[in-house]
Write a structure and sequence with these properties.
Length: about 170
């Protein structure tokens, strides 16, 4: 798989590309951990969103033994999620770094919707060829890619450091 290593300058450009796309005022932001923490913080500052929440989701298919054809239907475990009261009636920007399969963003957005919130999804990179949800995309994205993206906050960890890629 092709790799793309980004600099902080690259990320700044992606944020600068995203901000004008995002229309209207959001009542809050839900950042999907871990990937959404850095871009979420940058977007919150740029968009002047002060009500920041986090969501952490784990899928059984993230563990060995899950049959590949069942990945799309795996029931998620919410490790952390905002209470319904803080989502109800609010326009919520859901932020992650990358939409590969789309499971995290779609799952979080659906739960916000079920709580009575109005979610819109935002990622730095969208990978439509890997998505489990054809015809369904993030509301806002800065770039389309098929590469394995390595963000600047990941340079000291990851496959290269662990010796997986030589």
């Amino acid at each position: 798989m092709r790799r793309e290593v980004l600099t902080w300058s690259d990320v700044d450009k992606l944020i600068d590309y995203l901000v004008p796309q995002i229309r209207g005022r959001f009542d809050s932001m839900v950042i999907i951990t871990r990937g959404g923490i850095v871009p979420g913080g940058m977007l919150a500052e740029a968009l002047d969103i002060t009500y920041i929440l986090t969501a952490s989701v784990r899928f059984p298919s993230d563990f060995p033994g899950m049959q590949p054809e069942m990945v799309k239907y795996a029931i998620p475990e919410f490790i952390q999620f905002p209470d319904e009261e803080v989502l109800r009636g609010r326009r919520v920007l859901v932020v992650d770094d990358v939409w590969t399969k789309g499971r995290n963003s779609v799952t979080v957005a659906n739960r916000i919707d079920a709580a009575g919130g109005i979610p819109e999804m935002c990622v730095l990179h969208y990978k439509p060829s890997y998505s489990l949800y054809p015809g369904y995309a993030p509301t806002y994205y800065a770039a389309v890619s098929d590469a394995y993206i390595i963000y600047p906050w990941e340079l000291d960890r990851g496959p290269e450091v662990l010796g997986v890629w030589n």
